[in-house]
């Protein structure tokens, strides 16, 4: 028997909420059910309507917990899993002091395999079922990454970082080897199971013009792949990047000059862009990735969401581990709320849950597969407990609306609020806890 009914309070978005009162943006079933068969969602609705037509299904009763689509993280670094909370430096110093040291460990396949497994489990523990990550410069790190994802059945996007200057010798590729390795990895992984490849020139500072040309060739030859890089995160970074490409109008124009922008492009950070640059992102349908915990932790700056909105540019949201400080999308949205609040911008709880589910799926063009609970979609599902911590339970006693509950869950919750997580219909929580106990034996 492979039919499964998940019973609980089901919440899923169909549109971006326009206000906190916009009930047309989501479907909510107080006594709801999701019917799953062979890793796919067959039906979503009232439990009373679904149970009789699937009498042969196994029922898992998650009441009173919330059942939602698995979270999606659109930018993080798998080799930085053990570099979270590296003290006291802004971007360029932080990269040189901590990150470029850490990433050298991934020349060891044993290390890459170990961290890849723990990385996927950490995502799942936090309710994130799909993510877009940078691997290290080493080909083998990409094998480790996609193998760990495949073992868990996860839809993951990623790629080998390319960098051929301004990094230690041990972390540099060449324009040719970066191209060749990326080609080989795309052939091996893109479209295998649920894997998607992301062509990943790290940023303008670490790629020579020749490597940018090779990236352009890769993007032209592989329009099916994603592209990811970093843009306008830190003032010293902007000055250095633009000094390396003196003929570019601005930082964005460096990437535009190599035809890297487009609807598959994910640009991390985008904090200090001019209106001209944001308009270029809008015209090319590129995605600006908001990384609140990272932008605060590295002292980078505040993402101005409303300016992207008014200029019609696409945005997504992400943890950016290990510049980001948490794998939890709940904690990430809690910081997103504060980053916007301090600028006088509002982020409603509904908009927040939209962003980490359907919003991010749309940014990836994967809304037919993930990011919502809909017939025919992949059964990647998170079950959330709004009373997971004593302080949350106490606070929840005074909550009267779904909006309040969602906001409490986001503001006070973390991995402890994830009661269960399903990947392609398979419950993963017990497996994570067995495979990777929280405390070393
Ligand atoms: N810019 C270039 N590389 C990185 C990185 O690894 N993390 C962050 N936050 N910014 C970057
Ligand atoms: Fe990053």
UniProtKB/TrEMBL annotation:
Binds 1 zinc ion per subunit. It is an enzyme of class 3 (hydrolase). It catalyses: guanine + H2O + H(+) = xanthine + NH4(+). Residues 67-427 form the Amidohydrolase-related domain. Its EC number is 3.5.4.3. Pfam families: Amidohydro_1. It comes from the Bacteria. Its cofactor is Zn(2+). This is Guanine deaminase. It comes from Phyllobacterium pellucidum.
């Amino acid at each position: 028997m492979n039919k499964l009914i998940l019973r609980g309070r089901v919440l899923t978005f169909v549109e971006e909420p326009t206000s906190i009162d916009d009930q047309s943006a989501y479907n909510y079933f107080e006594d709801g059910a999701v019917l799953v068969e062979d890793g796919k969602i067959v039906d979503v609705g009232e439990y009373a309507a679904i149970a009789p037509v699937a009498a042969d299904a196994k029922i898992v009763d998650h009441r009173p917990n919330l059942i939602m689509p698995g979270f999606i993280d659109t930018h993080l670094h798998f080799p930085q899993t053990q570099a979270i909370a590296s003290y006291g430096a802004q971007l360029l110093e932080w990269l040189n002091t901590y990150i470029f040291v850490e990433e050298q460990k991934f020349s060891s396949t044993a290390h890459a395999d170990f961290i890849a497994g723990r990385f996927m489990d950490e995502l799942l523990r936090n309710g994130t079922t799909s993510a877009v990550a940078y691997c290290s410069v080493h080909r083998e790190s990409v094998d480790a990454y996609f193998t760990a994802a495949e073992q868990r059945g996860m839809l993951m996007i990623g790629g080998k970082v390319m960098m051929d200057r301004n990094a230690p010798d041990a972390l540099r590729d060449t324009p040719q080897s970066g191209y060749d390795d990326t080609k080989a990895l795309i052939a091996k992984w893109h479209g295998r199971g649920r894997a998607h490849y992301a062509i990943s020139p790290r940023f303008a500072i670490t790629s020579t013009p020749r490597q940018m040309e090779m990236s352009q060739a890769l993007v032209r030859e592989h329009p099916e792949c994603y592209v990811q890089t970093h843009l306008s995160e830190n003032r010293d970074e902007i000055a250095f990047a633009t000094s390396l490409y003196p003929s570019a109008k601005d930082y964005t124009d460096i990437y535009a000059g190599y035809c890297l922008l487009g609807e598959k492009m994910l640009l991390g950070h985008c904090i200090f862009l001019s209106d001209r640059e944001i308009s270029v992102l809008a015209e090319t349908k590129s995605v600006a990735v908001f990384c609140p915990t990272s932008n605060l932790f590295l002292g980078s700056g505040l993402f101005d969401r409303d300016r992207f909105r008014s200029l019609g540019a696409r945005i997504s949201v992400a943890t950016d581990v290990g510049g980001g400080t948490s794998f939890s999308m709940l904690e990430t949205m809690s910081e997103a709320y504060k980053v916007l609040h301090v600028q006088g911008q509002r982020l409603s709880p509904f908009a927040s849950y939209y962003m980490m589910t359907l919003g991010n799926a749309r940014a990836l063009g994967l809304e037919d597969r993930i990011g919502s609970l809909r017939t025919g979609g992949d059964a990647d599902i998170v079950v959330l407990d709004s009373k997971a911590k004593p302080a949350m339970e106490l606070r929840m006693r005074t909550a009267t609306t779904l909006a309040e509950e969602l906001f409490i869950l986001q503001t006070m919750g973390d991995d402890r609020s994830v009661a269960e997580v399903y990947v392609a219909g398979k419950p993963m929580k017990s497996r994570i806890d067995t495979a990777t106990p929280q405390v070393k034996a």
